[in-house]
Amino acid sequence: MKKRFLCLSLIFALTAAQVMPVAAARKDEVQAEKANTQSKLSATESKEAELEEKKNNLLGEIDSLDQNLVQVIAQIDILKGEISDKENAIVETKEDLAEAEADRDEQYAAMKKRIQYLYENGGSDAWAQMLLEVNSITDLLSKAEYTEKMYQFDRDELEKLRDTVQQVTDLGNQLEQEKAELEEMKQAQEDQQANLETALEEKKAVASDYETQIANVQAQADEYRSLIEQQNAELQKIQEEEARQAAEAKKAREKAAKEAEAAAQRQEQQNTQKPQNNNNNNNNNNNNDDVENEDVPETPSNNGGGNNENVPEPETPSYEPEEEEQGGGGYSATGEAVVAYASQFIGNPYVYGGNSLTNGIDCSGFTQQVFAHFGYSISRTSDSQAGDGRGISYSQSRAGDIIVYSGHVAILTGDGGIVHASNSAPYPQGGIKYSSNALYRPYIAVRRIVD
């Protein structure tokens, strides 16, 4: 009986020992597959971040081109207005010129009539006749002076009209030249407008291509994340199965040990009762030969290996569940703790696509690594982090919340400032640094990761 229980205990132990190595081998295999998938996911997320950075840079160039185009179009409108003003001035100048020329011609015609009248009525004897008709020398001088003034007036008026015609002509020529210069400037601006529009179309096409690539990369990353979830689920099942098998093996060992101990106790009782039974049997045999002797269990020999205490129990395989993803690091998950931990790395360099808090990291990698220290898993890019956690208003924000800008993300420090990985310039202009004004640029969202 005792040997049977011992064999049963060994069978349970050997069965558990055979099953667990198989589960452990599969567990190692799944963990290796998961590590490979995570490596691919990290590479895909880095590529996505790189494409996002390129797209954001390109969008910045597009914005700059749009602003330049707006300025050029505005300049063209201004030039059109100035050209229109010059055309109106030229029309007015031409009208003034025609009027001045008409006055000049009229004055010239009047002067010719007066000269013609003088000669037709006086002829070569005009001066002699004027001398004969005068009553006195004073009258003679008066007529001579009048005649002289008349001639001088005609000459002065003709000079004025000639100067006026010349001034108006010069002004017209100047306006025409200025209009031509404005036309040239307008043409240059229109050429620049055409070039800017062409450049914009090209860059928008490239940006659209980036968006397609990013969508493909995101789809691939989602596949990797789904695969990791499946692998985590399989690992969880393996761990649960290991725990179940370990519990069953322990229960079987305990049961076998109890049964072996009970068998040993029964054997000991039988050994104690054996001499008495033998005496009774002898008496019975002497008194009644027809009574059969009872079967007495064989007393196990100390050298026969039948003692249960000499059978070693199989070791219970050690099992420790893996550390859960949430709440790791042993630190208090508060907003102030997040800011304090993040501030330890101020002064370290910025590296685009980097993931090291000490050797180089970018803005979204910085926030991801900081929160990962406290067991919180957030996205890898700033655009994706705009959907992580819980959305709140800026007025409700506190230390440890993240603020997402266009193409950038930072951790709010609670005093109106932020700690973030800024750019590749040396610290304090760039790198991981503290900035006192969180609203130095428009933001997209404020998210609470640690409640």
TrEMBL record:
<dbReference type="InterPro" id="IPR038765">
    <property type="entry name" value="Papain-like_cys_pep_sf"/>
</dbReference>
<feature type="compositionally biased region" description="Basic and acidic residues">
    <location>
        <begin position="244"/>
        <end position="261"/>
    </location>
</feature>
<feature type="signal peptide">
    <location>
        <begin position="1"/>
        <end position="24"/>
    </location>
</feature>
<keyword id="KW-0378">Hydrolase</keyword>
<dbReference type="InterPro" id="IPR057309">
    <property type="entry name" value="PcsB_CC"/>
</dbReference>
<keyword id="KW-0732">Signal</keyword>
<dbReference type="Pfam" id="PF24568">
    <property type="entry name" value="CC_PcsB"/>
</dbReference>
<feature type="coiled-coil region">
    <location>
        <begin position="27"/>
        <end position="110"/>
    </location>
</feature>
<feature type="domain" description="NlpC/P60">
    <location>
        <begin position="332"/>
        <end position="450"/>
    </location>
</feature>
<keyword id="KW-0788">Thiol protease</keyword>
<comment type="similarity">
    <text>Belongs to the peptidase C40 family.</text>
</comment>
<dbReference type="InterPro" id="IPR051202">
    <property type="entry name" value="Peptidase_C40"/>
</dbReference>
<keyword id="KW-0175">Coiled coil</keyword>
<feature type="region of interest" description="Disordered">
    <location>
        <begin position="244"/>
        <end position="332"/>
    </location>
</feature>
<dbReference type="InterPro" id="IPR000064">
    <property type="entry name" value="NLP_P60_dom"/>
</dbReference>
<keyword id="KW-0645">Protease</keyword>
<protein>
    <submittedName>
        <fullName>NlpC/P60 family protein</fullName>
    </submittedName>
</protein>
<dbReference type="Pfam" id="PF00877">
    <property type="entry name" value="NLPC_P60"/>
</dbReference>
<feature type="compositionally biased region" description="Low complexity">
    <location>
        <begin position="277"/>
        <end position="288"/>
    </location>
</feature>
<feature type="compositionally biased region" description="Low complexity">
    <location>
        <begin position="298"/>
        <end position="319"/>
    </location>
</feature>
